[in-house]
Amino acid sequence: PSEEIITLMWSFVVSIYSIGGLLGSLSAGYLSVRFGRKKTMLFANIPALLSAALMGLSRLCGSFEMIIAGRLVSGVCGGLALNIHLMYAGECAPRKLRGLIAITASTAIAVGKFVGFALGLREVLGVESLWPILMAANALPALFQLLTLPFFPDSPRYLLIDKKDKEGCIKAVKQLWGDGDHMAEIDDMMAEQEAIRGEKAKSVCDLFRDKAVRWQLVTLFLVASCKQLIGVNVV
């Protein structure tokens, strides 16, 4: 193929991750309610392992299409995992630590980018013979989560509000926060359950039409837009 076609194909390889991320993000809300936060996080590791296999074996198979497919599937994993992680971590954390726990997602992204850049150096894995290993490296955190997450309970809020399982919620709270009096936070969840009883889940369109969260939405949109323009994505 010509140089222009090669440039187009590599641009497609880079940008298709965002398309997968959009698909993963749009399905995160439904899956988190249908299967629970914990099961959805475990499910998100399947596309991660599939993408690692596709990209890691692409050179052996002589197929650049496998890299494109692997990037797309990896994006689906990223879109799912980021949304569900924030939800699961925030709902599992006690109120006084909720803000601190929520920023672990941003910290993990920063650490992950740094590790990716470091592994991509020519002195490490960024050479012709080793790049398939570099592109399959995301299998390691996926395997780690598959081995460790089953030992954690599901989100107490999900168990109480979505599953109507008060005993399961209390058991999860004790496992996460230890023994003690946690009834105040459980009562808050029950009050929330009563407040939303009978209401249907809101769609993305409903969110845009809801005037109560208009300014919060505008603020988040501006912050996210500026984040795309600071240059790190260009690098």
TrEMBL record:
Compartment(s) where it occurs, according to its Swiss-Prot or TrEMBL record: Membrane
PROSITE patterns cross-referenced by the UniProt entry: MFS (PS50850), SUGAR_TRANSPORT_2 (PS00217)
GO terms of biological process kind: D-glucose import; dehydroascorbic acid transport
Bilayer-spanning residue ranges: 6-30, 42-60, 66-88, 100-121, 133-152
Main localization (coarse): membrane
Annotated Major facilitator superfamily (MFS) profile domain residues: 1-235
Mode of membrane association: Multi-pass membrane protein
Pfam family, one: Sugar_tr
MF (Gene Ontology): D-glucose transmembrane transporter activity
Protein name: Solute carrier family 2, facilitated glucose transporter member 5
